[in-house]
Amino acid sequence: MIRAAGPVFCAGLDLSDHSVETSPIEGMLHKIETYPLPVVGIVQGDAIAGGNELALHCDLVVASSAARFGMSLSQIGLVPSWFLIKKLLEVAGPVMTRRICCWATRCRRSASTIWASSRISPRPKTLRPPRRR
Q1: Residue 32's domain spans which residues?
Q2: CATH code of 83's domain
């Protein structure tokens, strides 16, 4: 299970650091995608850029009604990697891929649209971690 402790699922990389390489991130995402057990992403807030990509590589996404998915790269003049576009096309289809990558659309409640096997949780409180014994 992959989840965040705060109000944002994952905002992605700090793009002000121009020395960031993508290959270690792509390697991590490949490991998530090929993990032998199902990987569940619990999205309670924004999953933007790298967070969206992280959610795309999960086998199942459970999103609160407050969750938003999107890619902000085109807003700052960057082009998404082929790795991301290929995964978005595979999971979301061409129309949603264009909306997310070209127009930087942030989609609310898009888990039901993008991830056909996922569900929407009506209240964020249902996404709290289990109590420890």
Answers
A1: 2-12+21-121
A2: 3.90.226.10
pLDDT in tens, 63-98: 887 888 878 777 777 777 787 888 888 887 888 788
For the purposes of burial, counting CB atoms within 10 Å of the CB of 55, is it exposed (0-12), middle (13-18) or buried (19 or more)? Answer: buried
**For 108, how many CA atoms within 13 A lie in the half-sphere containing its CB?**
3
Q: Regarding beta strands 68-70 and 46-48, do their DSSP bridges make them parallel or antiparallel, or are they unpaired? A: parallel
Question: From edge to edge, which strands make up the β-sheet containing 119-121?
Answer: 2-3, 40-43, 60-64, 119-121
Separation of alpha carbons 90 and 57, rounded Å: 11
> From CA 118, how far away is CA 131, in angstroms rounded?
24
The mean per-residue pLDDT over the stretch 36-48 comes to 89
pLDDT value at residue 117: 42
Number of domains in the chain: 1
